[in-house]
Each structure stands twice: as structure tokens, then as C-alpha cells.
Amino acid sequence: MLNTRFAPLDPEQAPLAAQLPCLGFQVDQLYVYIYADRAALGQAAAAALASEFRRAATETESLSVIFAAAPSQDETLAALVEDPTVPWAAVRFAGQMDEYLELPADDSRSFRYYHNTHLWGLLLAKGRALDPAAIQPLRGDSPPADAEAARYAELLRRFPPQIVQGGIGEVNAHLAFNDPPAARFDDPELVKVIEVAPAAKQQQVNEGHFARVEEIPRALTLTVPALTRFSPAPGREHTVSYWSCVAPGAAKASAVAKLLLGEITEQTPGSILRTLPHAALFLDVPAAAELQGTAVDLSSLGWTP
């Protein structure tokens, strides 16, 4: 049974999110919010994220953010783009979690293409105050790949991420392309070249990005420390100040259960979110289905067996 403590979003910080029917509880340090459907989840996650942007902007003039690129983030990013209260002018580094090697930026399968069509490109088109120079993509088609990994790692040391928006993998709750057995909570690298794991490849095929797993190239990925906590310089420790994890859909249900009910382990990379001081997991009812009966009653949100 989950040892739950209900923790609804603060209505003063995120009034729209607080108005939506929600189940909220905490597992270790991770706050979990369950909404009836993807639309409500996206609105709530975006409202909470906008609130964190505003809070962070009052504390620093140089804000560093990282965003994932995946269909699971569509509703959240769409709502965030429409929010005029997000202080994009404070952003000095806007990065991404991973990118395929060989694919150019205008290839619809690349994560740069996703960000341009779902986030950065839309913000610039709407005239938001985001400095185009702050947008720092991973250049997967810029060989040699090891040099690009080193370049991006140096950027992360200069601009340690304060806010991360992402999701988890369907099978083992991977973060970016950090899948077992390669995922390491103590990885000495910040960015590395990897062979995409079979489970992650299959997810990409399931989502329609590639026709066959054999088509999927190697990739660059930010490691688990880069996305959570690391040492930018000797004697200096950095921890992400807000991690927003959005994981909708029935395909995520097994991974969600592993993340919340299992051990904190590299076999379930996303479980490390339970150790962060300020992290939130946003779910819809289908993604939370395997939590039913573990002190979570989803019937109030319309769940039926």
C-alpha cells in the first residue's frame, strides 16, 4: 500500500490546475498528481510549470531549462506556449534531453524538429520574449559525435539546468535515452553517445516515428546526473530545482507502477525522481491504472475496471 499524503497544487500559484479534479499524494519526495484525462493533465502540468518559471525568475536573472521531445508532452507544451505569464525573457539556456545521430534538424523524426514545431518555434512566432540565442539544440548531425557530446556537456556546466520538463519510457521508466543496463545514477559523463535500447526503439516504432527498429540510429543523450544533480565544478554541487514529469496514457501504466511502487534503482531510471527535493509526476487515469488498490481510489476521476 502506498503511504499517501494528499498534496493538491497551491491554488495561489496555479489556480487553473487547482480547479481541476485531481488526486494528489507523495511518494518519498515526489509529488504525484492524477487527472481524469490528458487534456486536464496538460493544463495542470503547464500551469504548475509556469508557476515554477515565475518563481525561478524572481530568484535569478539567468534561467536554464531542459525540455523533452515526445508526443506525451504535446498537451503540456501546447498549454505552456499559450500562457502569456511565463517569463521567457529570463531564459539564458534552453536545451534538449537527447537527439538522434545523423538526422538533420528538418527531419520530422528529429527532436529538434519536434521542439521547433511544438515549443521554441511557436514561442518565437507568437512574439514571446525568448532570446533565440538561448536555444541550444543537440546537433546530432554534427560529427564527430563525441565532440558534440563534449560541447554540450560544457554548456551544461555553464548553465546547470534549474527546470526540467520531461517524461518516462513505457517499459522501465527511462529518462531521456538512459535505459538499463546503461543507465547510471553516478554516471561520470553529462552527455554521451549511446545505442538506443531495444525497449526505447520499440516505443519509437509504436509512436510511429520509425517503421522498423532497425532504422533507428544511435543517439546523444543527457545522462541521469545531467538531468537531476551533478557537480558543475570541483566543490560545487547542483540539483535541479523543479522536475516536471508528464506521463499520460495506458502504455505508461506499468512503468508508473514500477517507478512509484518499486525500489529506487537504475533498473527503473525514473525512480530517481523520488529523491529530488522538488519534483512532480503528472498522470492521467489510464497511466495510473495499476495504482488502483494501493491506497489510490481512481473512481472519483471516472475510473472503471
Label the overall shape: globular
Beta strand %: 15-25%
Number of strands: 12
Major β-sheet profile: 7 strands, mixed
What is the average of the pLDDT values?
A: 91
* Content-based structural category: alpha/beta
Uncertain residue segments:
1-7
First-to-last CA distance: 19 Å
Order of helices and strands: HEEHEHEEHHHEEHEHEEEHE
Count, helices: 9
Side by side, the strands of the main sheet go 1-2-12-11-6-3-4
Q: Radius of gyration, rounded?
A: 18 Å
Helix content: 25-40%
Would you give an account of this structure?
- The protein has a seven-stranded mixed beta sheet, with helices on one face. A three-stranded antiparallel beta sheet has the order 5-8-7.
- The model is unreliable at 1-7 (pLDDT under 50).
- It is built from nine helices and twelve strands.
- The relative contact order is 0.17.
- The chain has 305 residues and is of the alpha/beta class.
- It has helices spanning 15-19, 38-59, 74-82, 111-118, 120-125, 145-158, 198-206, 224-227, 253-261; strands spanning 22-27, 30-35, 63-67, 91-96, 98-100, 163-166, 191-194, 219-222, 229-233, 236-239, 242-246, 279-284.
- The two termini are 19 Å apart.
